Amino acid sequence: MARYFTDEHEWIDLEGDLATVGITDYAQEQLGDIVFVELPEVGSNVDKGGEAAVVESVKAASDVYAPITGEVMEANAALEEDPALVNTSPEEEGWFFRMTVGDKTELEGLMDAKAYKAFCDEL
Amino acid sequence: MSEETPEVDELGTLPLDAWHRTQGGRMVPFAGYEMPIQYEGIVAEHEWTRTSASLFDVSHMGQLSVSGDGAAHELEKLLPGAIESLKPGKMRYSLLLTEAGGIIDDLMVTNAGPHIALVVNGACKWDDIAHLREHLPDAITLNHYDDQALLALQGPKAGEVLEALVPGTGELTFMNAAFFDWDGVPLWVSRAGYTGEDGFEISVHAAQVEKLADALVADDRVKPAGLGARDSLRLEAGLPLYGHDLDQNIDPVSADLSFALTKKRRELGGYMGHGAVAARLADGGTIRRVGLKIEGRMPAREGALVFAGDTEIGRLTSGGFSPTLGYPIAMAYVAVEHAAEGTTMEIEVRKKRLPATVVPMPFVPHRYYRGK
């Protein structure tokens, strides 16, 4: 399994032809207490860089972008019951959705964990 | 992921700036200053304020005074509240109005003995000062205490905490103020705030505010809290926020602030904007500020439009998730025919319609200390 990161603070796990997407620990820390997550509908198509989800903290709503192009196969129902999972387990249980990988070349511009850490350290 | 960052020009530095950073405050631009939005987290700070006591830095607010012969009388020409009859140490919530009845600012007015003290919103203070100088006679002195800091200690344990530190403060009841001497440091303490909880606002010279802040958080019952929690608390308390729920296009009747219009002054008038306000009182106006309970968990924010069927009937001016209640709440201006308690409507958020119901405010009951 390979994990990639975007400069918009999404992470993406690649397992075969399926990708799991969430927001990073850095992102949840910046957002603060998360009270609601609006997830994409299963079966909908998302475009790389397009709005795919919305995460609402106590203070504001923030867009979450799709890191690659593909079709949404599953949304994390656990977030409906407990949106705070994004705070407590952002890079595991607090995943947002699973999607197909339409074009693997889109992964080329993404960062690995080391590069992402260096990127955050600069912010 | 993206978030909007407001554009700002030059930012001022508050006396406690370094203190906030040492305490772990995350600083953001607000009302022309860098201010702490949160320390450990908005929800934790919100809940701490509801159960113990939190220290807020509100030094961005304007602390003004009006003095001289007939100062109260002159001020009454600009405010709809009874100021002349205010006894020493008593406070009142009031409004600065335009000729057309629009709200220039909301403020606290206190008879401080030798002068009348005003606490005005941080973002409005320069306009307020200009307005007051323009309309008060030259013989009336207007002071801006820009070397005074202002701390708000808020929460059910605020009374016992402050009494332990500054004996005598526990005797104050809601909307009363007095001078105290704390170890040689003069404090102007008022039992008020903007969280709906019991609490105090403490005016102290900038040179001594750090010492006072340290002494307050040295008490285990007190933690620092930021603007984020202050906003969610005041929303639950049903209190309007200037620049969001109030502005110059809104009059006191539409804003549901008629309580600030003293009965006698409603009839006699004599203040700027009275004609417009009297007309609005008579006809009821066309819009009203209401509190809304929103179904589900998705919060709706300022700017969201409100619908009755296909008809747009209003707009949200404040909204968010209520940590105390566990569901989203909002304030909105809606057409008066939809303003009655229990009326249902829909709020549009990202092309979805969220069902909402008009509920009484405050959303969370006030717990002011009115004496034993």
TrEMBL record, chain A:
Species annotation: Parerythrobacter jejuensis
Cofactor note: Binds 1 lipoyl cofactor covalently.
Cofactors, names only: (R)-lipoate
Record HAMAP family: GcvH
Cellular compartments per GO CC: cytosol; glycine cleavage complex
Gene: gcvH
Functional note: The glycine cleavage system catalyzes the degradation of glycine. The H protein shuttles the methylamine group of glycine from the P protein to the T protein.
Protein name: Glycine cleavage system H protein
Coiled coil: none
Residues annotated with N6-lipoyllysine modification: 59
From TrEMBL, chain B:
Binding site for substrate: 201
Keyword DNA damage recorded: no
Record's keyword annotation contains Methyltransferase: yes
Gene Ontology terms: cellular component: glycine cleavage complex
Broad EC category: transferase
EC numbers on record: 2.1.2.10
GO BP annotations, alphabetical order: glycine catabolic process; methylation
Domain Aminomethyltransferase C-terminal: 288-364
MF terms (GO), sorted A to Z: aminomethyltransferase activity; methyltransferase activity; transaminase activity
Catalytic activity from the UniProt record: N(6)-[(R)-S(8)-aminomethyldihydrolipoyl]-L-lysyl-[protein] + (6S)-5,6,7,8-tetrahydrofolate = N(6)-[(R)-dihydrolipoyl]-L-lysyl-[protein] + (6R)-5,10-methylene-5,6,7,8-tetrahydrofolate + NH4(+)
A family per Pfam: GCV_T_C
Annotated keywords: Aminotransferase, Methyltransferase, Transferase
InterPro entries linked to this entry: GcvT, GcvT/YgfZ/DmdA, GcvT/YgfZ_C, GcvT_C, GCVT_N, TrmE/GcvT-like
Domain GCVT N-terminal as annotated: residue spans: 17-264
Highest rank taxon of the organism: Bacteria
Family in the record: Belongs to the GcvT family.
Protein name in UniProt: aminomethyltransferase
Organism: Parerythrobacter jejuensis
